[in-house]
Specification:
Layout lengths: L1 H12 L2 E3 L17 E5 L4 E6 L4 E6 L5 E5 L5 E8 L2 E8 L5 E6 L5 E7 L3 E3 L1 E5 L8 E6 L2 E6 L7 E4 L9 E11 L2 E10 L2 E10 L5 E4 L6 E6 L2 E6 L1 E2 L16 E8 L9 E3 L9 E7 L2 E6 L4 E6 L4 E7 L7 E6 L4 E8 L2 E8 L2
Length: about 350
């Protein structure tokens, strides 16, 4: 009853209330590589968002210069890097749970600041840049409900019910999703059984209502759109699990990255790697940024780099800080790779020449 009342009250006063913990008030935890998202801006610049500290920065990887975009108590909701025109768009909660949109140059100089009057409740939102005659849009997710809004923001122009029923599991819930432009939506589900969790992905064309379900994963996955290409990639640390649990088999050739074109339905050949299970810490970490695929071997402290099409660029490089760093970019012109490390709790970029 209390939950129903809060939803009704939010609708009446015209605010957007965020329910998911990742969109709650910022914690007092120190910055963490696991809580950090990195977005490629250009060959010299990377945008970094740490959700533990609720900070957004633009970092010059060649000079280590950091320009702060946001470090106050208003929760960061989304950050988008536009290529044409060159802008960085930051969405945050503001007073009264409305949304503030701030636009910056690539150098971090503020261009504009406006409020967007959305109402209702949300677990997560994604801002979509205007294209042609179509204004900016915001996709809002709450539970199984997805609603796409645009100015004047008072009602959705497109809605989708993502509820998924599978009697083979005790529950199936939306865990993550991505949306970079109408009509393509990708949703990750977590399916919970008896002492076992499975993950799968559903892609939807919101205009034609075409759908595709991808269920052949043996571990948790991340999903990220790059235009109409959807990247699906995995990371895993080997650990003891119940006998009936589905998990990656060590030394087998495993799919660590897949790229599919949701418009045509075609899929590139996956990137496959094998990893040992040994000692207290082994497995792999995959990252995808600027159409580059980083695959790190946690046990060996080495990494390899691939194009998103699967071509190997670098092989078995030394992973800086024994794996305690996050890949940001590789510049093939200067033959230098860049990694993020939080030295004494502050952003530090490691420039790693490739010989």
């Amino acid at each position: 009853m209390k939950k129903s009342f809060s939803i009704i009250f939010a609708a009446i006063i015209g605010i957007l209330v965020f329910t998911n913990q990742s969109y709650a008030a910022p914690s007092t935890l120190p910055p963490s590589l696991d809580s950090t998202d990195a977005l490629y801006v250009n060959a010299d610049l990377v945008a970094i968002i740490d959700h533990n500290t609720n900070k957004a920065d633009v970092v010059n990887v060649t000079t280590n210069k950091v320009v702060n975009l946001s470090n106050d108590a208003h929760t960061i909701l989304d950050l988008n890097v536009m290529k044409n025109p060159q802008k960085i768009v930051l969405l945050k909660k503001s007073n009264g749970n409305a949304i503030t949109k701030t636009v910056f140059t690539y150098a971090g100089e503020q261009i504009s600041k406006t409020e967007i009057p959305l109402k209702g409740v949300a677990d997560k939102i994604k801002w979509v840049a205007p294209t042609g005659k179509v204004n900016e849009r915001i996709m809002v997710q709450f539970g199984d409900s997805f609603n796409l809004y645009q100015d004047p923001w008072n009602k959705p122009s497109v809605s989708f019910n993502a509820k998924f029923n599978d009697t083979g599991y005790e529950s199936v819930n939306v865990q993550d999703w991505d949306f970079v432009g109408y009509p393509y939506l990708a949703i990750k589900y977590q399916a919970q059984g008896i002492m076992n969790d499975d993950f799968f992905v559903r892609t939807i064309n919101l205009f034609h209502k075409n759908e595709k379900l991808i269920k052949d994963f043996n571990t948790d996955i991340e999903l990220k759109y790059n235009g109409t290409n959807l990247a699906l990639f995995t990371s895993y640390i080997y650990q003891a699990v119940p006998g009936n649990a589905n998990r990656p088999v060590s030394n087998d050739s495993l799919n660590v990255f897949r790229l599919m074109n949701v418009a045509s339905g075609s899929e590139m050949a996956p990137i496959k790697q094998a990893f040992k299970e040994e000692g207290n810490l082994s497995g792999w970490k995959t990252d995808y940024i600027n159409s580059q695929v980083f695959v790190g071997d946690v046990l060996e402290h080495t990494w390899s780099l691939f194009s998103q099409e699967g071509t190997q660029i670098l092989k078995d490089q030394k992973w800086p800080e024994n794996g305690n760093s996050k890949f940001l970019n590789y510049n093939p012109t200067t033959k230098t790779s860049y990694f993020l490390n939080y030295s004494a709790g502050e952003i530090s970029v490691i420039a790693n020449p490739i010989h």
